Amino acid sequence: QDERNWDFILVSDIHEVGSEKEIKRKKFLGVLKKKGFFIKKIEDEKIFYGVRAPEQIFQQYQCLLRNSDSRLPKPSDCQDVPVATRIRIVNFILLTTETPEREKLRSLMKEKVFETMFPLHKNEEIREFLEEHWARWSEIFSEQPIQKIRRYFGEKVALYFAWLGWYTFLLVFAAVPGVLVFGAGIAVFSSSQVSKEICEATDTYMCPLCDQRCPFWRLSDTCTYAKVTHIFDNEGTVLFAMFMAIWATVFLELWKRWRARVVTSWDLYGWDEEEEELAMELINDPQRKPEQYQHSYLRSTIIMLLALLMIAVLIGIAHALVIYRVVATAFLTQSTSRFLQEQANTLAVMTGAVLHYLTIITMTKVNRQVAKFLCKLEKPRTFSQHENSFTVKFFTFQFFTNFSSLIYVAFFLGRINGHPGHYVRVAGKWRLEECHPSGCITDLFIQMAIIMLLKQTISSIMEYLVPWVRSKWQLHKWQCPRRTGMVLGEEDEDEDPCKRQWLSNYKLNEVNMFSLFDEFLEMVIQYSFTTIFVAAFPLAPLLALLNNLVEIRLDAKKMMELRRRMVPRKAKDIGIWLQVLEAIGTLAVIGNGLVIAITSDFIPIQVYKYLYSPCGKENHTGVDCSTGYINHSLSTFRIQDFEPHTQLPAALPGLCHRYRDYRNADDYSYTAQFWHIFAARLAFLILFEHVALCVKLIAAWYVPDVPRRVKNQVLQRKHEDLHEKLRWVMPREV
Questions:
Q1: Opening angle at CA 701, ends 698 and 705, nearest 5
Q2: What is the rounded end-to-end Cα distance, in angstroms, of the chain?
Q3: Which residue range or ranges hold the Anoctamin dimerisation domain (predicted)?
Q4: What is the DSSP secondary structure assignment for residue 503, as one 8-state letter?
Q5: Is 58 in contact with 499 (CB distance < 8 Å)?
Q6: pLDDT per position as a tens digit, 375-389
Q7: Ramachandran angles phi, psi of 145, nearest 5°
Q8: What pLDDT shows up at residue 161?
Q9: Are 601 and 438 in contact (CB under 8 A)?
């Protein structure tokens, strides 16, 4: 038979004649033959079995399900099904076929009876088109051929690339205002009144950053840091955060409309996944009864407790990163190098971010295994339910892995560290970090920038490089002449047209059920970085846009050139990922509101302007209303009140020094200004989130999920179907 007719390839090691593995392999192949499958054997260093299903199976499938592969007026009009559909059906049958001992193919693969299974990349016209017009760097700005991707890889992969393309396109509208906000911050780099006051504060001495002979330092020494902070912490950031909350909603609503148009053109708008799975079960075994839904409150409770335990572990790892930063800052401030002393906090933040990235890489593998274990305990009924359950658990673990440290930097850094004379300490020894007098938002920016850059450069390079190296290694391994032992009565394998095709596919990197999942997860985590803390990092949409332009072609090249053909999956949407994205959109509103209200100095500056500044007290039109803010935001501390074990430097610049907080100089209790700012922060947070959520709801209502044209098409189709049924049941006129 011609190689194009083979649906699947099974690969096995050469086992001893009469061994248990050989007997199990023959039994499994025997069951397939009884079902009418055609099997071709080619022996090399491995044994390859080409599997082709009988046409009767596909006729039954077409006649049971009237879908995009078969819109037929009657069962007798069955026709050829697309290759992607054939592969999907044969994959289901292979995985659900049982030997007389009730063993399935996956268990046989675990026992090494079979090594692997895969469909073929075939030398067909559509593959050549995709390689020429899709999996090429020269097409990086071209529209993707979604219809042809669907025909070759199935609907699930096509919808992933359709979603990724749509997401990348709309990132343009987020990246442009992000760049404008960043550019506006650079334009006023040196003109901020707050930055000027810090730069001019040459006679303002701040409390030491550590307890062991750390020097008192001039506030003006951090002039550059203050100017950099103002690039991200300005009025434009508030507007951009509000814009991104609306953008996230509009993006999802427009995607729903685009998806509706696409799946309607594929005739999958009303497709039922459960019905299709039941149909394939009946085709595989007409006597098999469907597996019933099950639910156990005890099992659900155990799973929930184990998941919470895993989340607690991940939060504990975030605490460990905090401890690292605290200890690193303490050691750097005691260094003999003046540069290390002055930049101790910044270096601790940067090295902490790199360590956080390494933690993400390590814990991703752990999180995957834990999520798989919890899914086994849950025992979902179908593959789709298993995939959804795994997605929710794994993404939740990944979210805490990626964002726990960022949440600490954004909302806790510098707010739980106490004050001079009464510092909060780790293990009773090391002081927690303090915020810079101009705020903590730059720390959050540095953390996000390093993690995003590392994830989008090193991870993307390794994502392509590792499969490429494996592929080259496999080609090198198979370059030597191979034995071509033959079974009696077989044709000469050297002349077999299938052998080269099967071997070339076998040498490619293996794919599994997580291959597409990993691509989705990577993009959804990126979407989280792009939206949740975008107030601190307005360049995040631009980095995401540039990354995605490369990612689309990178994924295309991996699928076409470096990996075996992915088993096509039918789908009418992106599944549980849509609910995940909607949850991220809500978190983005909350996160950005908290960043502006708590992390940023936007609210304290506004309170100062309207209540305590020269503008608030009198009508000073020629004075910047933030004049005097820095002095107002610093409290005074007496040297004699330091803790007894604190070792101060020999030279003291004065008896009183300053630190960032709103406390009285007498008893170090909170001042009235602190409570005014606290109330303003809370009021702004409530107002911002309610306004943003209302705008999101209005946008979701204003932009219908399903276009009018699609609704009318579905309505017309239903009318025609009912009219056709009515015509057959009405009595004929005489």
A1: 140
A2: 55
A3: 84-146
A4: H
A5: no
A6: 989 888 778 888 889
A7: -80, 75
A8: 95
A9: yes
